[in-house]
Amino acid sequence: MIENLNLKKTPKQVLLEARVGLWSATGLTIASSMFLIALVVTFVIFPLNFNWQGIEVYAQSFTQHYWQILMFVIPCFLISPLYLILTVAIHRFAPEEKHILSLLGIVFAVAYVAQITANYYLQMSAISQSISTGLLDGTTLFAFGNLNSIFWSMEILGYTWLSISMIFTGRLFSDGKMETTIKWIFIVNGILGVVAIIQAVTHLDFGFPFSLVFFAFTFPVATAMMALLFHRVPKKDNKLTPQ
Questions:
Q1: What counts of helices (H) and strands (E) characterise the chain?
Q2: Domain locations in the chain?
Q3: I need a labelling partner for 153 at 20 to 30 A (CA). Which of 15, 101, 139, 230 fits?
Q4: CA–CA separation, 212 vs 230, rounded Å?
Q5: Membrane-crossing residues (predicted)?
Q6: How far apart are CA 30 and CA 94, in angstroms?
Q7: How far is CA 60 from CA 48, 54, 132, 133, 186, in A?
Q8: pLDDT confidence of 18, banded at 50, 70, 90?
Q9: Whether the Cβ atoms of residue 159 and residue 190 lie closer than 8 Å to each other
Q10: What is the pLDDT of residues 124-156, one digit of tens each?
Q11: DSSP at 205
Q12: pLDDT tier, 206 (very low <50, low <70, confident <90, very high otherwise)
């Protein structure tokens, strides 16, 4: 159970912390839902060609497909800081004996935010500017369309930090059906994310990226449930327990 055990907190403090949790969880639900839509559009409805044919060919079609890249990049850019804020809010309601878990969740969330935001901002700034001006030297290593690029290596590593954070944070939830659902969505996503980096390092082909699809569909469900729990905090004597 995630509950507020700090008896020194005033009702205003509790309310403020609950609001931060509510709005960060709500923002995460919206951003991760946008990510799901982008994933479907980018890989199903209007699938991008990831058969790398060189930076010159990629640059020729970059302007035409840039909106699809932004559909993918912008939600992911927003998810990372919102997730960090949410972990901080969760920590404020975690029982003292579980603070080590909530703090570890924050530590890995910080690493995730630092890496992922830089990676996505690079796509929206330096890479897009270089391609639009015809300065293609070195862009092959960072191009979104090149699955063997540094961008995708950084992407996988960044989401590994998120996965580890989710494993620690998920263990804070235990009381009731809603919290149990959140717990296992976080833990299963975390395990699948760790498996993904093992796959990348060992060059093993596990076929369809199930971990990505599972995350896209389940993460907004978990964050929506968290928003509901934070919404109920002032009504439940400072407890994040569903009624």
A1: 7, 0
A2: 11-235
A3: 101
A4: 27
A5: 20-46, 66-88, 100-122, 150-172, 184-202, 208-230
A6: 25
A7: 14, 10, 9, 12, 40
A8: very high
A9: no
A10: 999 999 998 888 888 998 988 888 889 988 998
A11: -
A12: low
**Half-sphere exposure of residue 192, counting CA atoms within 13 Å on the CB side?**
18
Contact 83, 109 (CB under 8 A): yes
Length of the chain: 243
Q: At what angle do helices 176-202 and 210-231 cross, to 10 degrees?
A: 150
For residue 66, the surrounding DSSP H or E stretch is helix 55-93
Neighbours of 185 (CB within 10 A): 23
Q: Which residue matches tokens 């901002």?
A: 121
Backbone angles phi, psi at 3, to 5 degrees: -145, 160
Distance between CA atoms of 173 and 166, rounded to whole angstroms? 11
pLDDT confidence of residue 4: 45
pTM of the model: 0.89
